[in-house]
Amino acid sequence: MKLINTLAEMQALKHPEGFKIGFVPTMGYLHEGHLSLVDASKKDCDLTIVSIFVNPAQFGENEDLDSYPRDMERDLSLLKARGVDYVFFPDAQMMYPNGYRTWVEVEGLSDILCGASRKGHFRGVCTVVLKLVNIVKPHFMYMGDKDYQQQSILRIMLKDLNLDTTIVGCPIVREQDGLAKSSRNVYLDPNNRQIALCLYRALIQAQKEVRSGILVAETLAEHAAALIESTGARVDYVKIIDSRDLNFPNEVNEHSRMVIAAYVGKTRLIDNMLLVSP
Ligand code: AMP
Q1: Which of 116, 172, 177, 183 is in Cβ range 3.0-4.6 Å of 29 for a Cys bridge?
Q2: pTM of the predicted model over 0.90
């Protein structure tokens, strides 16, 4: 496994003719969710590149940029064990040198759901991912369904800007009790770790209600929100979206996905699930 920490070296990499390049962008502090993306890339591609970059541009002023968990040594040993070919870890000054002034925004979808409470978040995400795609030049980019809005926005960005990279969405990896794996779960004390399960429970409850014939999106969202609030967690949003375009349907169909963001203590967690099992 080769480690690369300069743009010049990453951009100068030459790959054998015809090789399929798979890319997994991450912010590090890796868990099995990230590693499932690596496995998917290894399965499909000839070469797998992982980036580790805690992108300051996607954190708001009062968010957790400084405290975001980091453990480079552990990350590198996990990636090595998984057979990754290259790890790219630029620093912030390299990605955003003094005088940096170009930003990418996907209109309309960046200020709803997570974008409503995290102003500028998706502008930061789109900008860094476009930069990484230009630097790494992957054929396929592996992203988790956990960040469903992010993945949807980035698909549109790649298409609108005519980039030759395809996003491959991968299922959410969960803890045994259902909590979606997240680097931020480390913030949860034992009590909040229990409370955090309410997101998964609310999604499962909604799936059950759909099976029992409740199809009105607003009713399902209200019930989910009530379950979450009853545990002491605070709902940021509970919505039902159409997985294809992030529109908000009135009635559930096979494309409907419940998406949730909630604060457990100070920790903001997200999760989502299709409401009709495929
Ligand atoms: P992050 O390091 O949080 O920016 O995440 C990097 C990538 O890992 C994104 O594509 C996430 O959607 C994905 N990811 C994070 N958690 C999970 C999970 N529990 N299951 C699957 N993918 C995940």
Answers
A1: 183
A2: yes
